[in-house]
Amino acid sequence: MGVLQRFERRLEGMVGLAFARVFKGKVHPAEIAHALQREADEQRSVLGGGRVLAPNVYVVTLGPTDYDNLAEWSEQLAGELADMVAEHVEGEGYQTFGDIEVRLERDDELRTGVFEVASHVGDSATPHRQDLGAPPVPPPGLPPLPPLRAGATDTGAQEPLAVGRAGQRVSHVLVVDGPGTKHVLEQGSNVLGRGTEADVRLPDTGVSRKHADVQLSGSTVTVEDLGSTNGTLVNGRRVGRQELADGDVLRIGHSVLVYRQDGA
C-alpha cells in the first residue's frame, strides 16, 4: 500500500460515515495530501555529494468555508499530513533541515474548493508559494543551514488552524492493569469484550462477549456500555456513555483498564 493510500485509509477512520457528505464541493484532505507530496518533489534541491534537500515546513491556506469545515479534525489532520509528507520524503531518500511540519491557515480571499500550498526550508522567512492550477514556480535559493532544528515561522497569514509535526501525533491507548498490555485505539469503534469478534479481547468470565465500545472521533474518546451483564464503570461509577479524560480508569467485569494519551 502506498503513502497516499495509507493516509486516505486513516482519513476514512477519522471522518467516519460523514466522509462523502462533509467534503462534497469543498477541499478534500486527500487533495491536500497529493499537493503536499507534489510540493516536496517540485521544491527539492540537489546538494553536494548527490544529497537531495526537501522543504520541511509546509503551509496550507484555505478559504473561510473550507477552513471552518476542517476545524473539527484540524489538529489530527495536520499531524496525519505531516506524517504522510515525512513518509514520502523518507521513501524518496530526501533530507530536511528540521522536522516535517504542516500548518493549516485561513485566507478570506480564497473561494470554496480552492487552496494554496507554500513551503520553505528551515527558518526561511519567505516560503515558496504555489497557487494550485498555476504553473510551478522554480525553487528559490537555499537559506543557510540554521544552527538548531527549525520550528514554525510566521508567513504573514492569520493564526494557523492547526500545526502538525511528523511523528508527534497523540496515540490513544488502553492499558490493561496487571500485565500492562497496551491496546492502541483506532479511529471509530473499538469493542471491548470476551468474544472473538471484539477488537480488544479480555479473557475474563465477568466480561460480556461484546461488553463496551470505546469510540475515538478525532481527539475525543468516549466509552459506551453495550448492554453488558455486569456493566461498565469509569472511576468507580457505572456509566451508560461517557467521554474519557487522560488517566480515567475503566472496570469491566474483573478487568481494569486505564485510558492514556501517549505523546500528549
List the helices and strands and how they pair.
Blueprint lengths: L2 H13 L3 H5 L5 H14 L2 E2 L5 E2 L3 E6 L1 H6 L4 H19 L8 E6 L8 E6 L7 E4 L30 E4 L5 E6 L5 E3 L3 E6 L6 E2 L10 E6 L2 E6 L6 E3 L2 E3 L1 E3 L5 E4 L2 E8 L2
Helix pairs in contact: 1-3, 1-5, 3-5
What does it look like?
By secondary structure, the chain is an alpha+beta fold. Helices cover 22% and strands 30% of the residues. The protein has 5 helices and 18 strands. It has helices at residues 3-15, 19-23, 29-42, 64-69, 74-92, and strands at 45-46, 52-53, 57-62, 101-106, 115-120, 128-131, 162-165, 171-176, 182-184, 188-193, 200-201, 212-217, 220-225, 232-234, 237-239, 241-243, 249-252, 255-262. The strands form 4 sheets. It has a 6-stranded antiparallel β-sheet with strand order 9-8-18-17-14-15, with no helix packed on it. A 5-stranded mixed β-sheet has the order 6-5-3-4-7. The chain has a 5-stranded mixed β-sheet with strand order 11-10-12-13-16. Helix 3 (29-42) runs parallel beside helix 5 (74-92). The model is unreliable at 130-157 (pLDDT under 50).
